[in-house]
Design brief:
This protein is mainly β. Helices cover 7% and strands 37% of the residues. The protein is built from 1 helix and 5 strands; from the N terminus they run E-E-E-E-H-E. It is globular.
């Protein structure tokens, strides 16, 4: 799992039929939690907003986590962080 901050959203009118009706957010992983690389796009199944800290799963866990096992999903927001200790948020 990755901890990140939602920094934006994307809109796509043309996409795979399996992605229709889903929201896409731009997530910046937190370096203090071992996040590497730059921002990435994640499907948002729980209604996260810009500025919120979130839990993100990647790969097959993302497809399972959003209950879309055959969709072309690489990252999914599966939780919004309300509070925590020693994570830099």
């Amino acid at each position: 799992m990755t901890v990140g901050k939602v920094v934006g959203s994307l809109f796509s009118t043309r996409k795979s039929d399996k992605l229709i009706g889903n929201k896409f957010m731009i997530v910046e992983p937190l370096e203090s939690m071992g996040g590497r690389g730059g921002k990435f796009v994640a499907i948002d199944i729980i209604g996260a907003g810009i500025g919120e800290y979130v839990l993100v799963v990647h790969g097959s866990a993302a497809r399972i986590g959003c209950d879309m096992p055959s969709a072309p999903v690489d990252a999914a927001i599966v939780g919004i962080i309300d509070e925590g200790q020693d994570w830099g948020g």
